Amino acid sequence: MITQEDIRTFDVDQIRKEFPTLAREVYGKPLIYFDNGATSQKPQVVINAIEHYYTFDNSNIHRGVHHLSQEATAQYENARETIQRYLNAPLSEQVLFTTGTTGGINLVASSFGEMLTEGDEIIISAMEHHSNIVPWQMLCERKKCKLNIIPINEAGELIISEFDKMLNERTRLISVTHISNTLGTINPIKYMIDEGHKVGAKILIDGAQSVQHMPVDVQDLDCDFYVFSGHKVFGPTGVGVLYGKKDILDSMPPYQGGGDMIDKVTFEKTTYNVLPHKFEAGTPNISGGIALGTAIKYLAEQDLVAIQKYEHELVVYATEELSKIEGMRFIGTAKEKTSVISFMVSDLHPFDIGTLLDKQGIAVRTGHHCTQPLMDFFNIPGTVRASFAFYNTKEEIDFFIKALNRSINMLR
Ligand SMILES: *Cc1c(COP(=O)(O)O)cnc(C)c1O
């Protein structure tokens, strides 16, 4: 358990020392890592957790009578409980390990989706990541359901009056991102959850960009599902979390069949295991789950209020400095926004800017950021995206602005 006394005073220099990748160079230049929206770097404690598992505790979980298996099982289940507490989920069995955000959404689309019938409606938004679009398109095709898309305005905010109009008694599921990975927009999910519930719909929140930036309390939100990826919250790739309300998860059919998810198998009839095992077929990513628990514990020990404030300062400062550049066009200027800045400079291609920044040691994302419909809305091929984490600094932003100016001069 983490108590108030365990919360560390935010100290960016100390934190940077805990992320070994941040100390490296690329092309002989110090690395400036501004691609946190795609994946975060890992603190040493997370790297150690993976190494420790394979060095000392490696064995399969949930089935073994032997010591190693019991130790590995205990660590894996401890990680689940750490995540449960962090999300304030009522029970640890409501925290399902998945392969990531994509895995969690596909699980819900497949299993919850099985209970939908022709003419049922699903709502998503125009700013969703492909992984929160395509599974619903596939489901709608399979079940002959209707997919409604909440439009956005030029600032990259949801047009909530349009969402209100879409809600009706056929609305079964609303699946929206908490924070846009491309625009940084923070969506009014609390309102959407409450309004959705009024018509009896269930709500899935794509939390891939939020858990690492703000406290998330699934009971306070009252969402029905919440998904995120380990690798964006300072944990490993290939593991993630699906939180779900217990009665809904209990009512859903299994997703994948295999070992661990069964109660009893005969060729006549197979019965299924209880939560969480019902949705965790086969040997999972054991080291990944354990290390994700370590990452969440690391995050829980941070002063999240101070971090939010710090990241806000970074984004305000970077936006100010970027505004001074001629031809600067920001994509995503929502009032409520996290530390993501997407931009274009005149008609320079984002890829060219990204390539020149890379040569100066700066990692940014360029392209459509898995949100092609959003690029079509803004009528652009892509953006340059700088996305910050709590280990980034103003000095890095200064360096980035200089490097960007140099790149633009080369391209103009
Ligand atoms: C990264 C991301 C995803 C997909 O996450 P994976 O880790 O690739 O499964 C989905 N939604 C948002 C908002 C994201 O940022």
Q: What is the fold named in CATH at topology level of the largest domain?
A: Aspartate Aminotransferase, domain 2
In the predicted model, the low-confidence regions spanning at least 5 consecutive residues are none
What is the number of helices?
14
- Overall number of strands: 17
What is the share of helical residues?
Answer: 25-40%
Full CATH superfamily name of the largest domain: Type I PLP-dependent aspartate aminotransferase-like (Major domain)
Give the cofactors and ligands: pyridoxal-5'-phosphate
Q: First CA to last CA: what distance?
A: 55 Å
Would you kindly provide a written description of the structure presented here, covering whatever features stand out?
- With 412 residues, the protein is of the alpha/beta class.
- It folds into two domains: 4-30 and 303-411, Aspartate Aminotransferase, domain 1 (Alpha-Beta Complex); 47-300, Type I PLP-dependent aspartate aminotransferase-like (Major domain) (Aspartate Aminotransferase, domain 2), CATH 3.40.640.10.
- 39% of the residues lie in helices and 16% in strands.
- It contains 14 helices and 17 strands.
- The radius of gyration is 22 Å and the shape is globular.
- The mean pLDDT is 97.
- It binds pyridoxal-5'-phosphate.
- Pyridoxal-5'-phosphate binds next to helix 4.
